[in-house]
């Protein structure tokens, strides 16, 4: 027996539902020591639960019941959009056909154990609910109604959902934001990357209705950081993970250009660089890492960049156009930047201490294949050497001198020689930090201090497929999962992390995807077809 309940909210009541808990959607301006802080609130909240009228619904026959075998998927057209039809264990399911992350066709993905996995970046969705269960990405798939009549399969779907191909999970709001002391919060999240944002969203999805504050040194709301090296001319608004209105609607406060200088775990207080103090009940530290700089002579000259912000990436593209570029470090960032700039720059040279790129991650054979592909696209490699000096003319970079004696013409230099965890402010906190500066957490992303959690690139955690050995996995996908696990355990769910690491890179129209964390390579086959 199927019971269908449709709730229709009058316009006046609906507008109240969409308001912030303080009864208005106007910006909240907090002042500390007389200085206005940066907050996110806008006057245009978005609807968290749109109600569709009958004209928005479409129903269509998409196939015969015998057209699909168990374990098969098919992309079907409903006239105004497509859906993914799945037959699993004798039952039919219909969900969105595109991954909400980057739009990959899920029909080319893998169906296993009631979940479909994205073929591009590994995001995983429950076929019965459409819910996202592994990352990257923030949204779930829309789920459509399936019915069988006279051995034909029908799908009933919202036209809007067919067009958007994404669904944001229902979230709670803060019950009384106006009653809070401005210098205290229930949950404080230091860092506004993937881990921090997923933590905040998960808390709201689980019904948490107390105050959440995120703080970041960045000037922008959370954005898709991997695109800084893959799509370097993107503006912050183009790569934002959520629009400004989202943070307003769900009462997730974001303090931009705010740096935490110390944490007093005994009194549960975060001290900011400008002296402002904020009390917390639960704390997530998701500060990521800090790029390493060159230590050679002339390192202070102009036009030498670490790609850390959208402004950095945009500036490099502008300076590199029709000019000579030198990239130091054949890291993922360095190689992606090199690939992006080849069609724009006059020349691209890459300097690396190792003998081949990616040797540590993919082995020598894959590294040489990648190197050959780059060389065929006009990238010149200078391997097994380092930079000894950066020379300037009128204060701006002119030449890069290598220890091998080679002198390279350079108008702009991008440095990608690795990073260190951004945890220096925690040295006197009592939070357990290892010899390399990483925060040590358990399977629930908890530190040694009760109520203090950590996630993302700055942590080491027990990896199940490595027999719970403590590892650091600085992958975008893993940061998402860290944030979710931390949030669930702030709410005492007792959830342990068990996901498999996954990374990807894309260069010259080719992609490399890596799942797991291998110690050595048993068999390597290379094909760019």
- Overall, the morphology is globular
How large is the count of helical segments?
A: 10
Instruction: Please give the radius of gyration in angstroms.
Output: 25 Å
How are the strands of the largest sheet arranged?
A: 3-12-11-6-5-4
The proportion of strand residues reads 25-35%
Helix content: 10-25%
Protein structure class: alpha/beta
Kindly state the mean pLDDT as a whole number? 88
| Low-confidence spans | 1-51
**What is the number of domains?**
3
Report, as a whole number of angstroms, the end-to-end distance.
50 Å
State the total count of DSSP E strands: 35
User: Can you tell me the CATH superfamily of the largest domain?
Assistant: FAD/NAD(P)-binding domain
CATH architecture of the largest domain: 3-Layer(bba) Sandwich
**CATH fold-level assignment of the largest domain:** FAD/NAD(P)-binding domain
Given this structure, which CATH class of the largest domain is correct?
Answer: Alpha Beta
| Main sheet summary | 6 strands, antiparallel
């Amino acid at each position: 027996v199927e019971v269908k309940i449709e709730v229709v909210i009058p316009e006046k009541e609906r507008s109240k539902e969409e308001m912030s808990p303080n009864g208005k959607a106007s910006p909240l301006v907090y002042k500390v020591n007389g200085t206005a802080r940066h907050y996110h609130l806008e006057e245009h909240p978005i609807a968290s639960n749109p109600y569709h009228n009958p004209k928005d619904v479409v129903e269509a026959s998409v196939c015969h019941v015998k057209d699909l075998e168990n374990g098969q998927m098919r992309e079907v057209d409903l006239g105004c959009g497509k859906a993914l039809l799945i037959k699993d264990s004798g039952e039919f399911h219909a969900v969105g056909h595109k991954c909400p992350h980057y739009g990959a066709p899920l029909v080319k993905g893998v169906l296993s154990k009631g979940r479909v996995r994205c073929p591009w970046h590994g995001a995983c969705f429950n076929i019965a609910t459409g819910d996202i269960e592994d990352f990257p990405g923030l949204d779930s798939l829309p789920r459509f109604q399936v019915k069988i009549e006279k051995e034909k399969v029908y799908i009933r779907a919202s036209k809007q959902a067919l067009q958007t191909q994404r669904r944001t999970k229902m979230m709670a709001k803060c019950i009384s934001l106006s009653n809070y002391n401005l210098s205290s919060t229930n949950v404080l999240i230091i860092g506004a990357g993937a881990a921090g944002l997923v933590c905040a969203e998960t808390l709201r999805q689980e019904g948490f209705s107390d105050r959440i504050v995120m703080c970041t040194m960045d000037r922008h709301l959370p954005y898709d950081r991997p695109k800084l090296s893959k799509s370097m001319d993107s503006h912050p608004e183009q790569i934002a993970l959520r629009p400004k209105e989202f943070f307003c609607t769900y009462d997730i406060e974001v303090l931009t250009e705010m740096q935490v200088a110390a944490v007093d775990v005994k009194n549960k207080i975060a001290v900011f660089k400008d002296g402002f103090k904020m009390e917390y009940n639960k704390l997530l530290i998701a500060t990521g890492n800090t790029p390493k700089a060159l230590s050679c002579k002339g390192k202070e000259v102009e036009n030498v960049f670490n790609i850390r912000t959208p402004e950095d990436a945009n500036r490099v593209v502008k300076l590199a156009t029709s000019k000579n570029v030198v990239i130091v470090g054949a890291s993922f960032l360095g190689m992606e930047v090199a690939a992006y700039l080849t069609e724009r720059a006059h020349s691209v040279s890459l300097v690396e201490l190792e003998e081949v790129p990616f040797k540590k991650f993919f082995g020598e054979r894959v590294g040489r294949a990648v190197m050959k592909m780059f060389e065929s696209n006009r990238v010149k490699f200078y391997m097994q050497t380092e930079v000894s000096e950066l020379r300037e003319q009128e204060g701006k970079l002119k030449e890069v001198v290598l220890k091998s004696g080679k002198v390279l013409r350079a108008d702009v230099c991008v440095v990608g020689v690795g990073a260190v965890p951004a945890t220096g402010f925690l040295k006197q906190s009592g939070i357990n930090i290892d010899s390399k500066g990483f925060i040590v957490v358990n399977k629930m992303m908890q530190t040694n201090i009760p109520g203090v959690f950590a996630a993302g690139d700055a942590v080491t955690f027990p990896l199940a497929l490595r027999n719970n050995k403590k590892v650091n996995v600085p992958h975008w996908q893993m940061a998402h999962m860290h944030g979710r696990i931390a949030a669930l355990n702030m709410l005492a769910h007792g959830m342990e992390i068990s996901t498999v690491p996954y990374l990807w890179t894309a260069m010259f129209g080719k992609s490399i995807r890596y799942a797991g964390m291998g110690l050595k390579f048993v068999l390597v086959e290379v094909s760019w077809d």
